[in-house]
Write a structure and sequence with these properties.
single chain; 11 strands; about 50% strand
Length: about 130
């Protein structure tokens, strides 16, 4: 059974940092581009960061540039999202997703392009 399991969320104060992890089981993510999405209450799910299969390229949604860093460790089959200087508007459920691809440098921005999803981890930022 293929699973992506996110962890690392929590209740933090504005200005704090968190590192979210996404561990895969039942599959290897080494052939997958990976993405992090988030969904705030009452809002649609949105893409925040993506990383290529090779790990050589990454891309960030404009509001999180400079604060979010996506990385991957294929040996550990894990993808990370480092979030610094958290803001109340970052409050959301964060999901990781995997898209199998033959293209080592491609990044995917749309949720419908991803085949595998985790269950999400809640991040709540208080003022």
């Amino acid at each position: 059974q293929v699973q992506l399991v996110e962890s690392g969320g929590g209740l933090v104060q504005a200005g704090d940092s968190l590192r979210l992890s996404c561990a895969a089981s039942g599959r290897s993510n080494s052939n997958s581009a990976m993405g992090w999405f988030r969904q705030a209450p009452g809002k649609e799910r949105e893409f925040v960061a993506g990383i290529s299969r090779s790990g050589g390229r990454s891309y960030y949604k404009e509001p999180v540039k400079g604060r979010f860093t996506i990385s991957r460790d294929n040996a550990k089959n894990t993808v990370y999202l480092q979030i610094n200087n958290l803001k109340p508007e970052d409050t959301a459920v964060y999901y990781c997703a995997a898209h199998d691809t033959d293209y080592s440098s491609a990044i995917y921005f749309n949720g419908y392009e991803y085949e595998y999803w985790g269950q999400g981890t809640q991040v709540t930022v208080s003022t």
